[in-house]
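Example for tutorial group B:
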């Protein structure tokens, strides 16, 4: 079996630098002799740029694990049509709108991003029909009403996809499964490839694990595991990575710490954020908790409260900071709602926290 390792560190820059050294040792100087499979798409350009400053840019190709697996699928079989992301999202929106008309489902468009992510995860887990979905949901704590809503929405989605998709269309999940189950050795499919780096693979789906297993059988694979602290990824706050580390251990990976020698400004902050603490005996003064049924209602409630605060003159807009979940359902609604309520606002950062290895 090829040499398969996991480098873990709280510094992604350190991981990237060590991975470049590893690639230089394991891959030849020929074009595309190495692959860097980065899960976070906003990191890929910076990885390619950093590589080109030190090595021949043609040696390394940067992509996602799924994109790489789809390339292998084409070489194993033949190009198969698929459903474009935008078309898929439109179909999900139409499915929810149908549900809105038939079953009184509210705020269909607000829920489209969440259902899109949910259906993608379901397909990655190998769920392709409503019967399997119903069986899986019955094993969860979801209420019967929630289960019925999800199953019905998925049923409508499958019906609409069948209407617009090419007759020979194959889902991404099915293609990745075909790669994992292929009889032909992947080393024969990619004879020019010498080494693979996988980064950002947190809580991989069953299909992704199966593909990774096939890759480790054919090539040396290095997995980069950014951790929230210098501790082992199974200890302390690093326990949030326990499922990922268990999976990698089962695949035969060996772990090595490549901690950064420099002081990292976010390390202490991350430790404080994730380290369990004793809850206060009573609710702190000035802290209030409000529950609403949809992101749209949450944003509108917040806007009304902010409007009253600003009209009272006790605070200026510059004194107020709003932290929202990194979800499309919030991100797309806050600016529009604040403009409707005539609330002065501005975005203070150009990159969302979720696009970084801090978030």
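The residue assignment follows.
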């Amino acid at each position: 079996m090829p040499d398969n390792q996991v480098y873990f560190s709280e510094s992604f820059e350190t991981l990237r630098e060590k991975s470049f050294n590893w690639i230089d040792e394991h891959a030849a100087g020929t074009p595309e002799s190495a692959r860097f499979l980065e899960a976070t798409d906003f990191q890929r350009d910076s990885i390619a740029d950093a590589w080109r400053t030190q090595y021949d840019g043609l040696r390394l190709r940067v992509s996602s694990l799924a994109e790489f697996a789809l390339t292998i699928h084409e070489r194993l079989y033949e190009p198969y049509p698929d459903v474009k992301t935008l078309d898929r999202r439109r179909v999900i929106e139409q499915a929810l709108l149908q549900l809105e008309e038939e079953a009184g489902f509210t705020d269909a468009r607000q829920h489209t991003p969440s259902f899109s992510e949910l259906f993608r995860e379901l397909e990655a887990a190998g769920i392709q029909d409503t019967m399997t979905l119903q069986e899986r949901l019955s094993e969860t704590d979801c209420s019967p009403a929630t289960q019925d809503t999800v199953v019905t929405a998925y049923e409508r989605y499958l019906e609409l996809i069948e209407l617009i998709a090419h007759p020979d269309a194959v889902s991404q999940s099915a293609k990745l499964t075909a790669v994992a189950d292929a009889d032909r050795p992947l080393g024969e499919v990619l004879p020019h490839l010498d080494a693979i780096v996988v980064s950002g693979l947190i809580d991989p789906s069953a299909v992704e694990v199966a593909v990774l297993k096939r890759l480790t059988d054919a090539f040396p694979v290095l997995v980069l595991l950014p951790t929230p602290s210098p501790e082992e990824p199974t200890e302390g706050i690093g326990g949030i990575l326990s499922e990922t580390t268990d999976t990698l251990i089962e695949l035969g990976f060996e772990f090595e710490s490549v901690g950064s020698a420099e002081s990292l400004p976010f390390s202490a902050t991350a430790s404080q954020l994730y380290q369990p603490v004793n809850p206060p005996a009573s609710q702190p003064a000035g802290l209030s908790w409000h529950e609403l049924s949809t992101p749209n209602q949450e944003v509108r409630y917040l806007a009304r409260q902010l409007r009253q605060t600003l009209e009272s003159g006790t605070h200026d807009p510059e004194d107020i900071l709003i932290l929202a979940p990194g979800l499309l359902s919030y991100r797309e609604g806050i600016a529009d709602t604040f403009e409707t309520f005539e609330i002065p606002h501005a975005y203070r950062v150009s990159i969302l926290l979720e696009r970084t290895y801090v978030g």
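The beta strands are 4-9, 34-38, 60-63, 195-199, 221-226, 254-257. Compare this with the pattern of hydrophobic and polar residues in the output above.
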